[in-house]
Amino acid sequence: MPQTTTIVAVAQVAAIISTGFVSGLIFTLSHIAVPALYHAPTTVMLKQWATLYAIGKATAPTTLLAAAAFSGYLAYAVPSLRWNYTAAAILPCMVVPWTAIMMSSTNDELARRLMAVEDLKGSKTTSETSMPEGQKTADLLAKWQSLNYVRALFPLAGSAVGAWATLS
Q1: pTM for the complete prediction?
Q2: What is the pLDDT of residues 105-150, one digit of tens each?
Q3: Are the beta carbons of 144 and 106 closer than 8 angstroms?
Q4: How many C-beta atoms surround the C-beta of residue 42 within 10 A?
Q5: Angle at 113 between CA 111 and CA 119, to 5 degrees
Q6: Please, which residues have CB within 8 angstroms of residue 11's CB and are 6 or more apart in sequence?
Q7: Is-contact 126 117, C-beta < 8 A?
Q8: Alpha-carbon distance 141 to 124, whole Å?
């Protein structure tokens, strides 16, 4: 194993930890937080989902950007592993197109339902029956949960590729 400089070693550790952190955050939303929402009434379920979504949206992008920057630096600084670190930089960023292409319609529908519930706040009928025809909110949330599990795999793969490159 070649001698590494301190800055390369710090970037390696930071890239692996940051991508692992985001993967864990995303996975935890689906595995721990969402199942708890299924026990709540629809109005509460939607409000809590919106809070979880906002926390993820505020946390994940900047952490993924930092991870991509660390791995991008490593692709430059360690030419013998350029392609490995390039993959480690790109994989976590795939969260963005996955979310835009595969999850946006579900996210939009959940957000629309939340707005509908908030519009009906003064009304006594803020149950599932007051929602428009289509999927039940719990079914929609289950779809979001499944898509979110897949989304967690992108930073996990980036972390794994980065760790493999680091140990090479």
Answers
A1: 0.87
A2: 999 999 999 999 888 766 655 455 555 555 799 999 999 999 999 9
A3: yes
A4: 20
A5: 105
A6: 70, 71, 73, 74, 77
A7: yes
A8: 23
